Amino acid sequence: MRISIILPLIVLAGLSTGALAATQVIHQQGRLFSSENITVKKGEAVTFFNDDTVPHNVMSAAKGNEFNLGSLPPGSSTDVVFKEAGDVQVICAIHPRMKMTVKVVD
Ligand SMILES: [Cu+2]
């Protein structure tokens, strides 16, 4: 159990210091997003990483920034590029209390 938690952290630490330095990572643990509010520039990607023990379905219905990642199993990650400026409410379709806002600025 211990190794399964530490290994992904090492991988992520390596990524965050490399070419993807500008990409913010949102973790999902304990059926919560790791941040409630983040700000990104238009055209930037956010990595949604499921390091929880259950699947999550990250999505948004915000106009111009709609996406639906489908059910992502633990250990998987997906990048989402935000194309339009504005406040984007991001939710998990499976767990109603998982909510966050991505503020996209020009
Ligand atoms: Cu969820």
Identify the notable features of this structure and list them briefly.
4-stranded mixed sheet; 106 residues; single chain; 14% helix; Immunoglobulin-like; binds copper (II) ion; mainly beta; 5-stranded mixed sheet
List the helices and strands and how they pair.
Blueprint (H helix, E strand, L loop, with lengths): L1 H15 L7 E6 L2 E2 L3 E5 L3 E6 L7 E3 L6 E2 L8 E5 L4 E7 L6 E7 L1
The structure holds copper (II) ion (CU).
Order of helices and strands: HEEEEEEEEE
| Second-tier CATH architecture | Sandwich
CATH class term:
Mainly Beta
The structure class reads: mainly beta
**Individual helix count:** 1
Fold and architecture overview:
Helix content is 14%, strand content 41%. The protein has 106 residues and is mainly beta. The chain has one domain (2-105): Immunoglobulin-like (Sandwich). The chain has a five-stranded mixed β-sheet with strand order 3-9-8-5-6, with no helix packed on it. Strands 2-1-4-7 form a four-stranded mixed β-sheet, with no helix packed on it. The protein starts with a helix and ends with a strand. The model is unreliable at 14-21 (pLDDT under 50). Bound molecules: copper (II) ion (CU). Residues 31, 56, 92, 94-95, 98 line the site of copper (II) ion (CU).
